[in-house]
Each structure stands twice: as structure tokens, then as C-alpha cells.
Design brief:
9-stranded mixed sheet; Rossmann fold; 40% helix; 15 strands; 394 residues
């Protein structure tokens, strides 16, 4: 099939949705499909490069406690019309389809089979609450709906009720199997690792408070912090004013170094305060065999198995967080058990398995349309037979 993967964020700027799109693109191609990525530009990127089609400009803006993107162009309608006529997609797969404006206009003009994946989770969304009446028409043009977790499904179903198939995010297992620890941190001091954007919902300050408690109790450990963001200055000031030792701010690191850092970790800590739909960092930590301490929040419960892959604690509770970390550092057998169990659990989220489920869902949606004579005019591929694709549902 000819498939277009639509991301509302500037590809390939790092982020969970773009990472998902990248691996889905690669694995759908391995399964024999002709695939394009449809995105916007940000800066000096060319309008088109290889299989990436760029339409409009992306601009950053705050959203859901983080930073998102809106994409705009005064010529979107004509640009998108020409692109659709040229590409003749059988399937358009929208990721976060209601993020303005590229996805909304493309969905409105689409004459392909339209599938959407919803990635986000939040307790309440003012934009969805006040905009759902406007977006109901766009939602009605979706022929299939995917959510990356039960939490994401619950969130989006609140505003746009419908049938959602849960298909999780994936992880590139091979990257972690090949990785080795970084020698510079292999000096006998246990390493705690944090990976995430420095913003309140990721819980970095709660982790620093927990680390301070650990050091006051005489627990020997080092804290490695990967990432950047608006809370970095406050976090650094906290470390300096409390005179915390062995805290390393590593900033943004390459993918290769990040994987090595996971391998270096004696305990991976993810103290997010909420609004996490899934927890890709937990998948990565498990794939690397890192024992985990994380918050007991909706988006994380479907990823790790309590006590087997991770110790879960109440969010915003530095004392509980410190206690769980201390317990893991003191229990070699528990850490070793988690190291063995992590990769086995992560294997259930391999991109090969995830892509097979997505492909099978395409087939399900296409057959459902064909059965009622409702296939869109731009669908020209053969209709996948039932049972031909593994991992989906009928």
C-alpha cells in the first residue's frame, strides 16, 4: 500500500511522536509498503527530502505541561491538494490528528483511508473541551482510531467517543542488545539515571529532593541527569545551594550515548508527576536491563509490571522515592531479578510486533469499509484478506 504518516510536529526533531513515526516508517517499509512522512519545516529544511514531505512552518508553543508545535501556511489548502493528487495515498495515518493546522486541513481534504493514533494523556484539556464541537466533523472522517495506551484511550474517548484499538509504542531492542556501559561511570559508585525534559511534569525536582535525602542517610550513589528544558536553571540552583555532590547534568546526548547510559544505570528513576500516556523511557530502561523506580501513574502501569520490572511510588513524594531507591540499591538479588526480567518484558513491545499490529489494523479498517462499499476513491491497493496480517483484530 501507499501510506502517508502525518506528524504535527517538525520531523525529525526529537520527541515521542516523531520517534514513533520514524520506527513505524522503517518497519512498514520492511513489510513491503511505500511510505512517506508528512511534516512541516522549522528553519532552513528543504520542502522535500527523500521520503519526507514538508508543508508549512512549525512553531513551538506550551501545551500539556510541555512544549508542542502548531504548523501553519497561508497556502495549505492548495499545497495539500497538489500533494494528495501527486502521491495518491491508499492510507493516511495521522498522529495526534487534532493538533493545528497541518493535520486538520489534510484530514479535511483526504480521499484516502484515514487512521489516527492518539498519544496524549491529561486529566483535562481545555482545547479539546472547547474545540470538540468544531473538530467533530474532522473526527467523523476517521475510519480507524488507535490509542497508545489505556490511559490515552480513556483521555481521548472523553472528548471524541468511539471505538479505539490500543496499540502501544515500541522499542528498538537491537540498539540495547549491542550497547555497553560507559567506562567513565564504572568506578564502584552506584549510578542513578534520569532521562527527560527538565519541566515540572517530569519530576526532576522531586528526584533531587529524594537524592538529597539519600545522601543525608549516607547512601552512596551518583545521579546522572540527561536532558534539558525550562527547569534546568532551578534544578542546578537546587544542587548548588544544597551542596549536593556527584550530580552530573549531562544535557542532551546522542542516541548512542543515551543507550549506553541506560546500560550504565544501577537504578533508572522516572518520577513523573502525571499526564504521561505511556512511558517510552521505561521501555528503554527495561530493554537495557536497568532496574526501575517510577511513579505510580496511569500511563506507567501498562508498561511495567509492579515488583517485577519496577518499584512504583506515589508521585510528588520524595521520601517514598528515596526509600524505593535505597531499597533497590541495598538488594542485589532484586536488582538482578529486574535486570533479567526487563528485556523479556521489553520484547513484547518490539517495533516488529507493534508494526504488525498497526498493519493488521489497517487491514481491519479497510475490510470494514469495503464490506459496506465505503472505500474512499484514492484507495487503489488490494484489500488485505482477513487473517493475512498478524497482530491485529477483527
Amino acid at each position: 500500500m501507499k501510506i502517508g504518516l502525518v506528524t504535527p510536529y517538525v520531523y525529525p526533531v526529537p520527541g515521542g511522536v516523531n520517534e514513533h513515526v520514524r520506527y513505524l516508517y522503517q518497519n512498514l517499509r520492511l513489510r513491503g509498503h511505500d511510505v512517506r512522512i508528512i511534516s512541516s519545516s522549522h528553519g532552513l529544511q528543504r520542502a522535500s527530502e527523500g521520503d519526507v514531505i514538508r508543508l508549512g512552518k512549525g512553531f513551538s508553543m506550551p501545551t500539556n505541561g510541555s512544549v508542542g508545535t502548531i504548523t501553519v501556511s497561508p497556502r495549505y489548502v492548495s499545497q495539500i491538494g497538489r500533494m494528495l493528487e501527486r502521491e495518491q495515498f491508499d492510507v493516511l495515518h495521522f498522529h495526534e490528528p487534532f493538533v493545528p493546522f497541518l493535520s486538520l486541513i489534510l484530514l479535511h481534504q483526504s480521499v484516502s483511508v484515514n487512521i489516527a493514533t492518539f498519544h496524549a494523556y491529561a486529566g483535562f484539556s481545555p482545547s479539546y473541551e472547547f474545540g470538540r464541537r468544531f473538530m467533530q466533523g474532522h473526527a467523523s472522517r476517521l475510519h480507524g482510531r488507535i490509542a497508545v495506551s489505556a490511559a490515552a484511550r480513556h483521555f481521548i474517548d472523553r472528548y471524541f467517543p468511539g471505538d479505539y484499538k490500543v496499540i502501544p509504542n515500541g522499542v528498538d531492542l537491537a540498539r540495547f542488545e549491542r550497547a555497553v556501559p560507559l567506562a567513565r561511570w564504572q568506578d564502584g559508585i552506584p549510578n542513578l539515571l534520569f532521562v527527560g525534559r527538565h519541566e515540572p511534569r517530569k519530576g526532576l525536582l522531586e528526584l533531587l529532593k529524594a537524592y538529597r535525602l539519600l545522601r543525608r542517610e549516607g547512601v552512596s550513589c551518583r545521579l546522572l541527569i540527561v536532558g534539558a528544558g525550562p527547569q534546568e536553571r532551578e534544578a542546578r540552583r537546587y544542587v548548588l545551594t544544597r551542596r549536593l555532590l556527584d550530580v552530573e547534568f549531562l544535557g542532551r546526548v546522542s542516541d548512542a550515548e543515551k543507550v549506553q547510559l541506560y546500560k550504565t544505570a544501577d537504578v533508572f528513576v522516572s518520577p513523573a508527576t502525571g499526564r504521561e500516556s505511556f512511558g517510552i523511557v521505561l521501555l528503554e530502561a527495561m530493554a537495557a536491563g536497568a532496574p526501575i523506580v517510577c511513579s505510580d501513574i496511569h500511563g506507567y502501569k501498562g508498561v511495567v509490571r509492579r515488583g517485577e520490572n519496577a518499584l512504583l511510588v506515589e508521585p510528588r513524594e520524595p521520601k517514598e522515592l528515596a526509600g524505593a531507591i535505597a531499597r533497590l540499591l541495598a538488594d542485589n538479588d532484586l536488582r538482578e531479578s529486574m535486570r533479567r526480567a526487563g528485556p523479556l518484558r521489553a520484547a513484547e513491545f518490539s517495533w516488529e510486533r507493534v508494526t504488525a499490529k498497526v498493519e493488521a489494523y489497517y487491514g481491519f479498517a479497510i475490510r470494514r469499509l469495503a464490506a459496506t462499499g465505503s472505500l474512499p476513491p484514492d484507495f487503489h491497493a488490494e484489500i488485505p484478506p482477513a487473517g493475512a496480517l498478524q497482530g491485529g483484530t477483527d
